[in-house]
Amino acid sequence: MMLISEPNAVFSLTAGITGCSADKSIKTYGEAQNFFAAVDLKLDLSTIMYEVYRTINTESGSKPDLMWGLTVLYPITVNNEFNMTRGHFHQDDTKSEVYYGVEGEGLLLLMDKKGTTWAEKVFPGSVHLIDGQHGHRLVNTSGNQALKVIACWSKHAGYDYQYVEEHPFGFRIFAGIDGLDIRRNVVL
Ligand SMILES: [Fe+2]
Question: Ranges for the Glucose-6-phosphate isomerase prokaryote domain (predicted)?
């Protein structure tokens, strides 16, 4: 008899990733305040800014080593600045990552270690091949719709958040009167 089992996890645009090998984390405004240029007192600290669902693969040395995740970035502005993820470099910069846009519109901000910053448009069907040497951050620019992006990466990539805090992305994305208002990031 051939063994037929359930899959490790199940993906849905509405329920995220569920199943025995999946977990979910939430980032509130209280945790995300310092990503933005200025504090917005109109936003409750408990506001959910984004959710990350991912498959969990905890066995050391296990193969395959790939992780699969979904980021749901809500349509929120902070003093007119579009909602964004924390952003990170990989601790192991030989490990790359793939993003795939599934819903909403946004930008994928990318940055090298010299601080040069650029972006790719994210939309349903967009595919992004992220070099492990580049920092990456998602920005939801759709205004009224969640930005949902699938990611696939090596569990050995690791997350270097501190480098981004000490060397911020070069631009910030605000809602302009008739489109995006892209401003050079002023580091004090
Ligand atoms: Fe990453």
Answer: 47-165
